[in-house]
Design brief:
mainly alpha
């Protein structure tokens, strides 16, 4: 139970783990970010809050190097999405075979069309949306989104996500006001990062409405 609590709430136990296991914290953090982005069954793992907390801790300790962390966790995020995409691409043809009432072939066709049109934006913007970011590469794989296109936006999104939260924590995480209202700061960052998604949704809705008129 202690290990499960550490795994699910690593941001709260970073200092203790660093003191007890030292350099192995790099492996733990890589595994969590990889699983949060790479396995569709683990969207509940910490992502944004963990990156911000790691950045803050690395700013006032010699046990973690912020630049090693940045490269390592960017790699974890990118590789995780690649694995998630590959699983979706492998699972898709087996699931959408037309014999399931809910998972029909036309759903797959619509998903494919959506990713051909909005796939790049979806891959980048949903990096900043907890839970959703775990499912997007999986669905992109099911929809057989062009892999080169997926890989490009996967890299852009992975770099932007990790850099924003990790370096944000490094430079801002130890400010008194931020430390006192840590959860609120995380929610505000997520809220701001979701604005482009909201803009795209509203723009698409208005475009369809105008077309109907």
């Amino acid at each position: 139970m202690q290990f499960i609590d550490l795994f699910l709430h690593t941001e709260k136990h970073l200092g203790d783990f660093l003191q007890a296991y030292g350099i192995w914290i790099y492996a733990l953090l890589f595994m969590i970010i990889f699983m949060e982005t790479g396995l569709v069954v683990t969207p509940f793992l910490p992502g944004d809050s963990l990156l911000f907390a790691v950045g803050a801790l690395s700013a006032n300790t010699t046990g973690m190097n912020i630049w090693i962390l940045t490269g390592l966790l960017i790699a974890a995020a990118i590789i995780g999405n690649m694995v998630n995409y590959s699983i979706g691409r492998w699972v898709g043809p087996k699931v959408f075979h037309g014999g399931n009432r809910w998972l029909k072939q036309e759903h797959l066709i619509r998903a494919h069309a959506f990713y051909e049109k909005y796939g790049g934006k979806a891959i980048v913007l949903t990096r900043f949306a907890p839970i959703i970011r775990t499912f997007v590469p999986f669905v992109a794989g099911i929809a057989t989104m062009d892999y080169r296109k997926f890989l490009f936006f996967n890299i852009v999104g992975g770099v932007a996500w990790v850099a924003l939260f990790l370096l944000g924590g490094f430079y801002l995480g130890n400010l008194p006001g931020v430390k006192k209202h840590f959860e609120i700061v995380i929610l505000l960052i997520i809220g701001v990062s979701l604005l482009p998604i909201a803009y795209e949704v509203v723009r698409g809705f208005l475009a369809r409405k105008n077309k109907a008129l």
